[in-house]
Design a protein that fits this description.
single chain, five-stranded antiparallel beta sheet, 17 strands
Length: about 280
């Protein structure tokens, strides 16, 4: 859209925009907000497109209402279909759920994804909320200080981060010191971890990324750890556990295992993906 000697004017870029605060026109009804970018169409074509989109998001009965008469979720839907109405080549969404509570945010993220899929629309979402990105995106880019660190599916960002920044930034986890032998197996105080580790040229000290789901609570395990803190999440607890060396790890446990702080519990490794980074120096 812009290069030396040539700039495409905004109205000819075919880019739709959903703003963080929705930016609906307060003096226009729902249907007139949606029709705003359709002035090049005939009256019949414009009305057909508005009717189609209002039915798509379940707001056909609210077409005569004004933005201040709508809930936050309804305003978000109007902003979305207003941007989609002219069928742009790409739709940009600037943290469109940031002002909503967690439950509504997750619900709308799923709804918006379904709407975009039905419309076969390409969208770029900017967000600081990882769960929102996981719920919405086919592919996610992790950007920091102007650098794209990784471009991958959410599953790969979480289980197969390409660098230390992504490993620290995405999801929860800790780094546990270990020793990687020439066969790619890492020895740790919790036991050996292979998980697809490849042979390496020389042995080295590494830090292994352990997610809360890489540890399993097992009363029969000889490996014991002390409960340092716990966070109740309804169906599960997130326990912070202290190992014999003083290192701490995280473990997700079903909430009917109600362990007190200071109690020692059995744990074992269940690592499917070995992610290890060399320790410099």
């Amino acid at each position: 859209v812009s290069r030396p000697g040539a700039t495409v004017t905004p109205e000819h870029r075919h880019v739709g925009m959903v703003f963080q605060d929705f930016a609906l026109y307060p003096h226009l009804s729902v249907e007139k907000n949606v029709a705003f970018g359709l002035r090049s169409l005939s009256r019949r074509q414009r009305q057909d497109r508005v009717d189609e989109l209002l039915a798509l998001v379940g707001l056909d009965k609210d077409r005569k209402r004004f933005p201040h008469e709508l809930s936050g979720g309804q305003q978000q839907r109007v902003a979305l279909i207003r941007a989609m109405a002219p069928r742009p080549d790409v739709l940009l969404l600037d943290e469109p759920f940031s002002s909503m509570d967690v439950e509504l945010r997750e619900q709308l993220a799923r709804e918006v994804r379904n709407i975009l899929k039905r419309e076969r629309a390409t969208a770029i979402l900017v967000t600081h909320d990882q769960l929102e990105a996981f719920a919405m995106a086919d592919v996610i880019g992790v950007v920091a200080e102007g650098r794209l660190h990784q471009w991958a599916r959410g599953y790969e960002l979480y289980h197969q981060p390409t660098d230390r920044f992504v490993a620290d930034f995405v999801g929860q986890g800790v780094m546990l010191r270990g020793w990687r032998n020439r066969h790619g197996v890492v020895e740790t105080e919790l036991g050996p971890i292979s998980g697809g580790g490849k042979p390496v040229a020389s042995e080295q000290t590494v830090e292994v990324l352990l997610r809360p789901d890489d540890l399993v609570h097992d009363d029969a395990s000889p490996m014991q750890a002390e409960v340092v803190s716990r966070s109740f999440r309804g169906a599960e607890y997130l326990y912070t556990l202290r190992l014999g060396s003083g290192s701490e790890v995280l473990c997700l446990v079903q909430s009917h295992h109600d362990h007190a702080i200071g109690e020692r519990i059995g744990i074992r490794l269940d690592v499917k993906h070995l992610v290890a980074f060399p320790v410099q120096g």
